[in-house]
Amino acid sequence: MQDAPRTHDVVIIGAGSAGYAAACTVRDLGCDAALVDTGPLGGLCILRGCMPSKALLASGDALADARDSKQLGISARGVDADMEFIAARKRLLVSEFADYRIEGIERFPLYRGSARFLSANRISVGDAVIEAPRFIVATGSKIAPVALDGLEETGYLDSDDVLELEHIPESIVVLGGGYTACELGQFLSRLGARTTMLIRGRHLLTQ
Question: Does the pLDDT at position 1 exceed 80?
Fold first, then answer.
């Protein structure tokens, strides 16, 4: 016999930054909010976006500042980068931020798994059936590989892969000229990779 449906005022599908903010807003308005997420908990910004990228960029900025310090009257010799240390520091910062966010997420009813709509006001998550008059879908996005001839055969890194690098490659080609491409391209270049950027337009950062 199936358990009775569980009911909430609002169910948010996705517990990333947007989903968590929505749940907090719903709670502040005096309503019962629940979250659904497949995991890992923390959201894109903390796990694979703002936090890890800015941690890496901070190291790249410090290295560039040290190398350019002569124009400020400071002589810095033997300045180098320890990528293994940089990667470990990044992981620690991400873990600390994620733990803090998870504490907040777990203050709400949390259903772990993929949601499937059974009707306009009912979903299933695993064996659980959940009812609510309102649902918010905040599932985020995933990287969509570019359809380029030979790309799969050649092999490539997406932005998530770059954030997990333990060693800097000797050379790399960055496809794209948006802010993510520019940030990661600059970081790799500063740490010693011969970096070439390929863009379709005439300028970087056109949007």
Answer: no
